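**Fold tokens**
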Amino acid sequence: MNRIMAKDISLDRGEKQLLKNASFSIASGEQVFLTGGAGSGKTSLAMALAGQAYVSGSIDSFYDNVSVFLPKTILVSQHFSFKNKFGLAEFYYQQRYNSYDSEDSLTLLEAINNESQDAIQINRLIAIMHLEHRINAPLIQLSSGERKKLQLILAFLKPAQIMILDNPYIGLDVDSVTKLNQYISELCNLGITFILISDSPEVPPFITHIAEIKEKQISFIPKTKYYPNHLDDNADDTGVSYALIKSLLMPITNLSGNEIVRMENVSIKYAEKTVLNEVDWLVEKGDKWLLSGHNGAGKSTLLSLVTGDNPQAYANQLFLFGKKRGSGETIWDIKRNIGYVSPELHWNFTINLSCLDTVLSGFFDTPGLYAKASTEQVETVNQWLNALNLTEYANTKFGQVSHGIQRMLLLLRALVKNPPLFIFDEPCQGLDEFHTRQFTRLVDALFADTEHTIIYISHRADQIPNCINKKIKLVNGNIAKD
């Protein structure tokens, strides 16, 4: 029995054609890993299969009338946002750290109970996702990994016969990925068909077939015959000029002293929940730090103190760029010294800006371009675009280029003002192998021998640049001892 039959489908994204007269079928019992280069159309095809995007040709889905699962196809997208208790407004980034704003947010358990009252299934999914200790946490205070876990729980509470998971592992620690794969394997055995998109070249154990989008067509092969084409470490990065890139990064001139961040006995609490406990941390000029820890360990909260977004900074002994927090500096004084890249910034960034204006906004630390850039600033951005071989996208809307190119543009946005500190929070999350390698190579080429300071977060060893020379690990809000 076929689950999906697609015949002569053509699919566009903006002015770019992704598929042309492609045909394929997915049989009952087949579990598909959908792969392809950045911008090849994986997410667009997933949306078309779920009935969320227009496609010419025909797509037919077939459901089992006696199945206990919903007779439909659902897409669990990469990004997950939620509104306040009244369903009126999505929360903005800084609200996560304002304790009074949590009163306007559902708790994790309330959000789950709004979808299902099946206590047995709810408790099992909460245990699988290791969220037992967070059931009373307001949604606004969840880390990005915990939000992803909640999104998956809500989807699995009402499983459909065909489920499409677009990068379900983003933001999850290694243990969570393992448990998620085990649970999906159980659902496969019960008759659900999964189509999975992932940025990792590693194929999950429950997958039976690989589908690859290439040259506007899609081909299927059994997993047993699939050998991923891992990138050659010496392969060319499509015209990236590392020599030019290096010449564009100027020495640091706007910082006196060696101290970037100093925390002394810093603790952060929300109600009865201690998120950071007596943290001591010194970051000096030129350090390249890896910040690690499980989902909910306190990494995002620690970063929020450094970026100036957490109001509890004023109640602690926190020094940024040699000055005690709360000694008269504005949040903009802090942010002008920081270049920041994260999936959360990416998700919430204005998609209607041109790629040129996206990078220019880095001079102003704004999510859009609200001031007129100078001729010198425009020239600087054009030089950076040229160095990364991205000039052709300068006048294209940010939302119309591939996910990988968008992330590279946000890196340039962080670079253009030449700050002394760069914070890269899961910067390769959701990127394919090519763009991941390109990103880490750029970081190494730019910063390996400079006095710029880096704080880098990643759950995956293959996404960490070689220039990292110091490590700090959080476990339940405490610094882990070596």
In short: The longest strand covers residues 2-13.
